[in-house]
User: Fold G domain-containing protein from Aporhodopirellula aestuarii.
Amino acid sequence: MFPLRRSTKEPEIDWPALLALLEDDDRRAAIARLAPAPGRESYLMALRRMQSSVVAETLTAGRRLDTAGRLVNRPTIAVAGMLNSGKTSLVSSFLSPAGQARTLRGTSNREGTHRFVLWLPQSWRNDVELWSLLVSRIGDSLGHPPEDLAEDPAEAAAQYNNRAGDESQLSVALLATDPALDEIGVGLLDCPDIVSDEELGLGSPQQRKDLLGRAATLCSAFLIVTDAASSRDTTLADLMRIASDLMPGVPRMLAVNKVRPRQSPDQVLETFSPLSQKHGVATIYAAYDYDVPASRPFIPQRSDDDSERRLPASVDSASGKLATDAASNETEPLPVFFEVSANPDENPPASIDEQRFLMSLPLKLDRGVLFSQLHRALRINLEKVIWDRGLESIRKNAEASFAKTRDCHRVLLDASLEFFAHRKIGGEVMELRLHQSERILRQLSESFAATAPWYARWGVRLNSTIRRFVGGAGDLVRSLTPSALSQKAADDIKGRFRSGEYGGLIAPSGLLAEIERHGGTVVLSHYRDHQAEARSPSQQVDDSGLSLEEPSADKPVPKATRANLIDDEALLMPPIERAVLRFEQDDFTTLDPRRLDEAIRIMWSEIPMHKKLAHGLTPLATILAAFGAALMIPIDFGHSFILAASIPELLAAAGLGALAAMWAGNQGAREVGQQAARQQLSDFLAVLCDELGVARPDPPMKVRVAGHDVALPTSRISRSETNGPTMPVYRVRDEFVSELNKLLPRSSGKQK
Assistant:
């Protein structure tokens, strides 16, 4: 059943050194926080943010492994089973008569086991340090310190059955000692019955299974008790799965109780073998039902001393006192479990060897091999908690932070492109628009004026001369001058910008509408989460968006959605307003002056003669009027309005369609504006991210323009502190993973 030789020595785990790594938030930290401010977090600190329960499991698993070496010669066998399976009767067969009297046996719910009861050799209590270590491990496993099992049988029975009806007592183990266990030198953990429903009100089946899985880590072997009719019961399969998943490598045995005579031992083996092989059960024991007379030939006989121990002293359920000898003789005998052999001739009614009785199991245990298996199981359990649960949760959280940040970048870029992109009718981006800042407009005006031909410049000079001579002439005279014509043209151009015919007029309200349209209120959820956390408990909302405040007659809680309770517009408008104003103030982008002058000079030279005559004295004045109109947008409409328009759009808005087409058709001229437009779009996106608490794109994003993917440059606007909530971004550090692999290397294979 157990290995004859020790397996390859497992690597020793230095728990104090490993714990120091998990707590390190400096050089060996697990997490690098990239945003909102660079920093580092330890493994345990990061895990507390996400799954605080896994932190407790990690520390508990580490302490278990660290203390296991000191308990090498004190193995414990877990005995688990379903209601009325005979589990406590099996445990009783190892105890003295006095110990048997303190156990609770029977077939009704009043005799059910609803607490963990740990029976230990009496001699173990004499070692104060060892006993303290055992008690500490029990508390670590179940979450609460144990309490002593009462010496009085009646009180002990009430504790066993949890007759106080306190569900929380399920996780408080009962601790008892018995001198009969000194001889075999093992402890026995009598586990609560796995009930099929919650009728008893003493813990759900799932809660009991969870606690059983935690308690199993105390044990060096696992014995599952079932009755012969439960081979297909799902609860039995769950018990085996708990044993195999949570304590891989630990010996597992199955004890089949209440076998009927019509089922021979080899049939029992055949029935339960598939399930046993699936879950790595090493040995199957069987005990025939002694209530059936025909079972007698299949119940092996042992020595007289052992037979006497199998007739326990009974306890009167009313008085709680030991029964008289006469009553004791009528007490049910304890089941006799024997190892089932695949050879029918070696099973009862044939005589069997003493070593095949379950009672001989503790004496056959190789403590060295058993400890090696327990140590491996505890190490694998620690690996699972730290690598598979803890680190995997941290990785997923870090990946989710990147993914959510990328979603925010995409939403903000798409919303920005509604203003910074000049599109075709089908939606394809033809070119990017420039933020027509004072610097850009001044450059354009000066370059157009400096490179303009004589006839265009003469028109501007004439304008100045007439205004000087006419002076305070009436409206009619002023309307005939080029200056008045330019002013009228500027008013017309502003109207075209405002109507959206040309360019994109960026206002906070319009930008917020575009962000919402692209799903920004979903991905920018850190604002909503921050406000929800700041609410008092009486003002909090649940996942459905309904208030958690208790309703009252004078203040009923109306039906509402989260969107009604938390006004996204009110949350997002202030940072968006700050972003627009800050971009207007901090946008220092300029056009390449040499390339700009060259492009405009070429454009002037290519204007056809009939176009020159048609425009007469006003082409430069009209162009400057368009630039002036763009410059007046923030003054006329409000400082929170800015204009984004490409140079061809400015010219087209002034009615200079031919010039606009010429500019758009000139590769050099077009690139002058596009280079600056890409920088401005990158800067605008960066400022939006800053104010909305989102990390800036790194590396910069790409935009598809005229069928080509164009990479945006790095923003030139300095990063600023966010006034509101932030969306953190994390990365798992490779240095931590490398160090963790040294201190807690992954197993090459996981034994089941």
Q: What stands out?
A: The chain is about 50% helix and 10% strand. Confidence is low (pLDDT under 50) at residues 1-8, 307-330, 459-482, 536-566.
